[in-house]
Structures are given as structure tokens and as C-alpha cells.
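Here is one chain, start to finish.
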Amino acid sequence: QVQLVEFGGGLVQAGGSLRLSCQVSGRTFSSYAMGWFRQAPGKEREFVASISRRFGLTDYSDSVKGRFTIARDNAKNTVYLQMNSLNPEDTAVYYCAASSVYASNNQGDFDSWGRGTQVTVSS
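Its structure:
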């Protein structure tokens, strides 16, 4: 397992943008597929986006496709989630996760998790 720490959460107005980052420990960041998940109050944790280990192939949930962008910078051991056109339904704790196997939309395929960062979107 590796250590992950999320940054960039906060309060934003509806229609605004926010960029989350996830700092990953070690020098083997490129060996991990990365994902973002979120959990809203009273809801189950859900998949948001993922990016593959080597070439940055991406996948998104239908609810965020076209609004969110996941990217990684292997030289900086960092994965990002750019969130545009935010709405109150995006309010949640956002979690960064790493998989030593493959990119997936299933949280069970991820080995390591950050502690989360709160994103609140006001209307």
C-alpha cells in the first residue's frame, strides 16, 4: 500500500469550478491506477473517475462526464480532479484511491485510500 493525501476541497458556488489533488507517497506512483470516489451525506460511496497506470486512459461516471476531468502527473506523484459546472448534487467527501491491479469503477479493486476532502457546492 501507499499513502495518499487529498487537497483542494472547499466551498464553491453552483456553476463554479474546483480542482482537487491527491499526493501519493513513494517513487512507484506510475505503478498504480488511480481513482476518485465520493460519498454524499446519507448516500453510498460512488465512483467518479479513474485513470490508468501508464498512459492515462480515463473513465468517468455518467453523472460527471463532460464536467470533470481526471489527470495524473507521474513526475509529481500527483493525480488531479478538475471539477467544472458544479452543482449542489456534487456536494460530498471526495476520496482518492490507488489500485495495484487496474483502473476500475469498483472500490474493492483499490488497495489504498486517502482520508477524503470535503467539497460543498452552494445554490
